[in-house]
Amino acid sequence: MRIGAKGLVGVAAALLSLSALQAFALANVTLSGYISDSKCGAMHNAKDPDAACVNKCINGGAKPVFVDADGKVWAIDDPDAVKGHWGHHVAVEASVDPETKSVHVVKVTMLAQQ
User: Fold this and answer.
1) Domain 27-110 CATH assignment equals 1.10.287
2) Residue 99 in contact with residue 79, Cβ under 8 Å?
3) Which of 13, 57, 97, 99 could connect to 37 by a Cys-Cys bridge, CB 3.0–4.6 Å?
4) Count of Cβ atoms closer than 10 Å to residue 68 Cβ
5) Among 2, 3, 106, 99, which residue's Cα sits nearest to residue 90?
6) pLDDT per residue over 16-69, tens digit each?
7) Domain coordinates of the chain in residue numbers?
């Protein structure tokens, strides 16, 4: 089977798009928000997340999640990286995977409560 010039251009464009998406997913970015739990997610007040509730939920089996400044909830693929920051406002340096809506946290910095 022969692929015409238009077909080759289409295949090349698809491969480049996939490479760009993978590069974005692997690049570290810094995001600000707070650490919540998978049960409550973004239901906590972003200005004053209930650290006691977050701790209770995580100790009860919920997983820690990161809620960004836009209220988007991200799964944390390495929960130990945020241990001790549950319910806190933080900046995280992380690689982001938009397909799985997850982050791999490299560094956590405490921010002032808002």
Assistant:
1) no
2) no
3) 57
4) 17
5) 106
6) 444 444 444 557 999 999 999 999 999 877 667 789 999 999 999 999 999 999
7) 27-110
